Amino acid sequence: MEVITIEAQAFKNLMSKVDTIFEYVISQGKTPNKDEVWVDSYEVCTFLKISDRTLQRLRSENKINYSRIRGKNFYKISEIKRMLDENLIRRSDDHLQDLILNHIKNGRQDTNTEMHP
Fold first, then answer.
1. Residue 110 neighbours by CB under 8 Å, 6+ apart
2. Which domain holds residue 81?
C-alpha cells in the first residue's frame, strides 16, 4: 500500500474543488430518483438513530426489504420511507432527509439504481 501525504491547506483546497463539482452536478439535475437510491446499514442506523439490532430485527421479521451484497446490507430509500409511514421506526421526516442528503453529498452513488434485490 502506498501512502500519500499532503498539507492540510492543499487538502482543503482539493475538497473545496470537489464540493464545487458536486454542486454543479446537482444543479444540472443529474441525481437519481431519491426513492431508488440504496443506502447501507450504517447510514440507516446513523441518521435514523436506531441500533444495528433494531435493523436486524426488522430484517429477520421480514418487515423491511433489503439486498445483501458482499456481506453488506443495503436498503432502498423507498423502503425506509415505508417503514416510517408504517411507524415501524418512529422518527421525523427530518431524519430521512438528513440520510438522503448525506448519502448524496458523500458521493455514495455507486450503490444506487444499479442494484436489484
1. none
2. 32-111
Number of structural domains (the chain) is 1
Q: Cell 436489484 sits at which residue? A: 116
The torsion angles phi and psi of 40, rounded to 5 degrees, stand at: -90, 175
Q: What is the model's pTM?
A: 0.53
In a domain, 92, yes or no: yes
- pLDDT per residue as tens digits for the range 15-38: 999 888 878 877 776 555 666 788
Residue 95: closest CA among 56, 60, 50, 34: 50
Largest distance between two CA atoms of the chain: 49
User: Does 10 map to a domain?
Assistant: no
- In Å, how far are 8, 56, 60, 79, 115 from 53, measured between CA atoms? 38, 5, 10, 18, 24
